[in-house]
Each structure stands twice: as structure tokens, then as C-alpha cells.
Amino acid sequence: MLLERYNNDKLLFNSNFLEKTDDGSHWAYRGELIIVEGEIGDDKGHAKPPKEVLRGAAILADEKIKLLIGALDDIDVLPELIEKYQQAFSSDLQAMIFIVNLKDPVKVTIADTAFTLIPLLQGVPWNETMEELAIEKSDLKGISAANKLITIWEELKAYKPKYPTVELEQALDMKTGAIREGWGAV
Prior knowledge:
Blueprint: H1 2-8, E1 12-20, E2 27-36, E3 52-61, E4 65-72, H2 78-85, E5 89-99, E6 106-110, E7 113-119, H3 125-132, H4 145-158, E8 165-166, H5 168-172
Parallel strand pairs: 4-5, 5-7, 6-8
Antiparallel strand pairs: 1-2, 2-3, 3-4, 6-7
């Protein structure tokens, strides 16, 4: 399946989990999805860390990507994400991308796929998705990690945000100077 191939191709980074749903029909992944690979770091072919990733990615896929959630630090990377993975988007893809330097939430249709783009200076895409969809932790209690993504996918199908729909070029023009705040040891 698709996510197994991505794993073999080393496009999954800092993986939280990669597993089949309970019925075996889909693979589910949480971690980071590489958008721009790192350069070769030594003569043995080891790669340096990726240059761009979809942070906190949650992906549900069979032979195509059905659910895509994650965060980008810069809206300018969105076209690169789409270019790299567009061939794998299913016709019923549900996509919610949080972007650090996006001014306002919007909906964008790219290659017949609706993307919900939401500003997010701090936070975790998974938690923000749960909040956006009004899903309580108790709603997911007792469900396997992979099946939680099926639940989110089903909820996103019914999700109708009242954000304005704009062209991709307009969304790219909504860039702010915001940068993700780094937290670390004090």
C-alpha cells in the first residue's frame, strides 16, 4: 500500500505510528511527511535531515491518500507539498493544513481537492483538528490509533467550515511575518 511505499522510500520522518486499521482496508500514519528531502550528508549516502516537512501529519490511505492533516511553517511550501503528493490524492481526500504564517482561515480547491487552511502559530495539528471538528477525547476512547484516523476522516467529510473560498494564489498572498516559536530547555 501507499504508506508502506512512502516508508520504504524514507518519506516518513519522526514516525509516531504506521499501522493498519482494524479491518485492514487502510494504513494510518502519524509523524512528519517529508516534502523536501535533505541532501546527501556523507559518502555512504546517508541523508541530512529534511529541509521541509508537514509537521504533525496524520495520513489515512489505501492506494490513495484519503486524509491529510498537518502543519506547515510557511505557506510558500504548500505548492511543493501538493506537487510532490498530488498524484496520490484520492478523489474524496479530506485535507486540513495548519499554517504558521497564514493571516486568515480559508478554503482552497487545488486539482479538484478542497483544502481547509487554518492559521496556527503554536499548537499541535492533531489537537487543533479535534477542536475544529468539536471531537472530544471521550469520542475516541477505546478506538485503536489507526481507527481514530478513520473517525477523523468521517467527521471531515461532514465538516462545512464557513471560511471564504479563495484561489491558491490569493491564499499565498495572505502570508504574514509570523514564525513558529521554538520551545526548549531553559
